[in-house]
Structure formats: C-alpha cells, structure tokens
Write a structure and sequence with these properties.
The chain is an alpha+beta fold. It contains nine helices and 16 strands. α5 (276-334) runs antiparallel to α6 (338-363) and α6 runs antiparallel to α7.
C-alpha cells in the first residue's frame, strides 16, 4: 500500500515542483540581467569621470612643463576638480627633483614614495589609504601629476541608477583590492551573486556583489508544498505499514541481535499485531533458543567434567614424577661410586625439570593462560642449584624475564634445554654464574627471545669435547622441538633461541 501511494502521487508532485523551480529560475535570470546592466553602467560612469579628470590633469602638466610661468592653470584645474568632487578634488604636480609645483592645500595621502611618483600604472589602487590615484606624466617627462579619489567620491560616481538593494562595489587591480561601497557598512555574508566589468585602464576591474534574498519559511513552503503534500499522503500509508509490519520486525531483529547462547527468546511479548506470520516467526525463534539453551547446558557440564579429568591427570603425573625423583634420590644415596652418584643426580635433574613443568601447568589450569615463564625458570633454577654437585654449590643463577606465558609443548623443551646448559656450565665453571633472560621480541606479541650467558659456556677444548660426546646432540634435538635455531656465541659464552609465547 505504501509503495502504491508513493508511486501514484510522485508524478503530480514532480510536475508542481518543476513549475516552481522554473519560476525561481526565471526570477534569477532577471536578477542577473539587472546586475549586469548595473555593473556595466557603474563601470562606464567611473571610466568617464576618470578620463575627464585625466584629460584636464594632462593639459595642466603639459602646460607647466612647456611654460612654467603660467600658474593660473593650476587654479583652473582645482576649480574643475572641485566642481564635481565633493571631497575637494585632491591633486599634486611634482618635478623630477620632488618639488611640488602646485596642488591642493590638503596634505597628500600616504602610499606613494618620492622615487615612485614617475613610475607605475596610469591608475593605481592604494588600499592602505582607501584612495585611487591617477598618474599623468608630461610629454617631455619632466613633470608628473597625481590626482587622488577618495572612497566616498568613487562610491558617488559608481552608484548605479538602478535600485539594487544590498549591493557592494569593489575595485581590484592585481592583488590590490578596495571596497568602495558596502551595504550598511558591513561585509556581505552568506549566498551572493557577483559580476565584474573592466575600467579604462584595462588592468582595473569593478565588481558588484548583491546578496541573495534569504530563504524564508514562506518561500520554502511555496517551493516544496507539492512535495510536502506528496510526503503527507505517503506518510499515512507508511504509518499503517510501520505499525503493522515494520515495528514488530524491528523488535524481533533487536531481540535476535541481542541474543546470547543459553538464553530463551521472548521477542513479541509486548507487541499486539494482527500479522500472524510475524507471531509464528517469533515462536520459531523461541523454540530454537530453547534448544540452544539445552545444548549449551549440556556442553558446559561436559566441559566441567573434562576440566576435572584433566586436572586429575596432571595431578597424578606430577605425583608420579615426584615418586620417581624420590626413588632416584634413594638409589643415589646407596651408591658409592662417584660416577654413579653423578649419573643419578643428572637423571634426577631432568626428572625434576619435567616435574616443575607439570606443577606450573597444573597451577595455571584455572586461568588457562599457559605456563608462566618467570615462575617456571625460578623454580627450575632453585631445583638445579639444590641438586648441583658439591663443587658447584656456589654456582649463581640470575633471572631476568618478562611476564610471559608459554604452552606446555614449549615449556617442556625449554626446561630440558636450561637443565642441559646449567649442568654443562656447572661442569666447566663450578664457581661461576649464569644469567637467564627472556624478553619479548619487538613488534611481535607471539615471540620472545631466550638467552643464556655464562663464562663456562665459552669456547674451549673441554666445551668441544662435551658437545661432541652428548650435549651437542641433545641441544640440537631440543632446538628442533622449539622449531628455531639455537645460536651459540663462543666468545661471550651465550646461547640464544626464539620461542613461541601466548599473546
């Protein structure tokens, strides 16, 4: 119904709108024609006034240049200029030395310095002084005459005979600009129409600007009344369609958009609508939400059961590793051979490393953020120092790690890697220290750099032998599990490898 009403009334509204636009366009064309006649008339009047004064000034300058004794011609020029200039017709005649031969008694307006009197255009705007100066040089170039026209005189001469309201006249010459008349003394703002006409000399342009009439409410209503009628008729149909169809659908869409799994939708409880199809659609969404809520509850229960089983598995693995470590410790106490004791201690350090990983992973299961790097390395370092050989009891380990978290798949090879490097450093430099640092990689939130530095890891013959016998293969295998190359700096005694962290 809304579509039929809109399409039926739209052609009539468009016809009336086109007629209103055509009437307004005709009025605008008439206004432009009147403005063109006015600016042309003003330009001709101003040009005629300037040419007549220029002719009189040229006659006076040439007469004084040929016969300087005739001073009465200056009086005749002053009478001529003051006869049609209400500001007194200011003029001044100078020679090349800057001496004033004759002129008006009033002081000369500022703007033209001594060296520029004989130079420049025939007519020049001085916006700083709000005057127009006309320059005439004698035929022999010895004298120059300057005639000044005030803003009030230019406005009276250029005032058009047509009665244009809210007009503004502006003279432009290059970058110079001077407003000679302004409606009410204020700058024209808002929408306006402008036309220009050239003066003689041709480098000066007179521009007339007329403010467009304001868009009053009555004018807008007369223009858009056909559209208002068309819109009012279409709005009635829209109201009916909106109340019966669109509004219930919008409420239904909002309810579905705000739906969270586990809730039961009741989208149309407060809406009374005769559209039975929409009611049936709301009922369908309600039934679907009930099914989803039931499945969500079952999944949540299953997830809780799985989490408890996972915690139980990690707890039992941790306990089994502690039992294995205790058994190894008992066997190590009953051994008398130093090599066997050291072998038991080496095995126990690796079991402890794996046990530390499981303890930290078990502690982080509640937050599900992974294994914390700093507590893992701290606990591992304490365990390694506790099981260190007697000659390496004073071996120091410094830890500098960011607050990062890693998965269990990364934590296990890191724990074994640090165990191997600490054991190797203790064997080669029992009284030394080791610095373990873990720093996040710049511009990467999923990578970190693990660095280990100790004097015992510097390049030496003993280091080469231990790497060749066992440690080199183990370190290479662990770096492959971490999927990154393990860099060794033999001079500094450091190892570096990039690891994956949880963002």
């Amino acid at each position: 119904m809304f579509l039929i009403l809109t399409l039926a009334l739209l052609p009539l509204g468009l016809i009336a709108l086109i007629a209103s636009l055509q009437a307004i366009r005709t009025a605008d064309l008439e206004k432009d024609a009147l403005l063109r006649v006015a600016v042309t008339q003003s330009a001709r009047k101003l040009t005629a006034d300037l040419l007549s004064d220029r002719t009189a000034l040229e006659l006076t300058v040439n007469t004084l240049a040929n016969d300087g004794s005739d001073q009465s011609i200056c009086q005749r020029l002053e009478l001529f200029l003051t006869s049609h200039d209400r500001d007194g017709g200011l003029f001044y005649i100078y020679d090349r030395r800057g001496k004033r031969l004759c002129g008006s008694a009033a002081p000369e307006p500022a703007g033209i310095v001594f060296g520029a009197r004989f130079k420049g255009r025939a007519a020049q705007l001085l916006p700083a002084s709000n005057v127009l100066v006309s320059r005439v040089r004698s035929r022999n170039g010895k004298l120059v005459g300057l005639a000044y026209y005030s803003q009030a005189h230019l406005e009276s001469v250029a005032d058009p005979a047509t009665a244009l309201q809210n007009r503004q006249l502006t003279l432009r010459q290059g970058d110079a600009r001077m407003v000679i008349s302004r409606p009410g003394g204020a700058q024209i703002a808002g929408r306006a129409s402008s036309l220009s006409a050239r003066l003689d000399p041709p480098d000066m342009v007179l521009t007339m600007t007329v403010r467009d009439p304001p868009a009053t409410l009555a004018r807008l209503l007369s223009l858009f009344l056909p559209l208002v009628m068309w819109f009012a008729a279409a709005a009635v149909g829209w109201f009916v369609v909106n109340r019966l169809l669109i509004r219930p659908l919008v409420l239904l869409r909002r309810s579905v958009a705000a739906y969270h799994p586990g809730e039961v939708l009741e989208p149309l409880q407060k809406v009374r609508t005769p559209a039975q199809e929409i009611v049936a659609l709301g009922e369908t969404f309600r039934e679907i939400s009930e099914d989803v809520a039931t499945h969500e509850a079952e999944m949540a229960q299953g997830l809780e059961t799985q989490r408890k089983l996972t915690r139980e598995v990690h707890h039992r693995v941790k306990n089994n590793l502690q039992i294995i470590a205790s058994l190894i410790n008992l066997h190590a106490r009953s051994a008398h051979d130093p090599e066997a004791v050291e072998a038991y201690a080496s095995i126990q350090r690796r079991v402890d490393a794996l046990s530390v990983v499981h303890r930290n992973h078990f502690a982080e299961l509640e937050d599900n953020r992974g294994v914390g790097v700093r507590p893992l390395i701290s606990e591992l370092s304490a365990s390694l120092r506790g099981t260190a050989p007697a000659q390496a009891r004073r071996f120091g380990i410094q830890i500098d790690a960011d607050d990062l978290h890693i998965s269990q798949d990364v934590a296990v090879p890191i724990a074994f890697l640090l165990t191997e490097l600490v054991e190797l450093a203790m064997m080669l430099d029992p009284q030394g220290t080791m610095r373990i640092a873990v720093r996040a990689v710049a511009d990467r939130d999923d990578r970190a750099l693990l660095s280990v530095r100790s004097h015992g890891l510097r390049g030496s013959d003993a280091m080469t032998v231990h790497l060749a016998e066992r440690y080199g293969r183990v370190l290479t295998g662990l770096s492959r599990q971490l999927r990154a190359p393990l860099d060794h700096d033999a001079e500094e005694g450091g190892y570096k490898i990039e690891i994956s962290v949880i963002p």
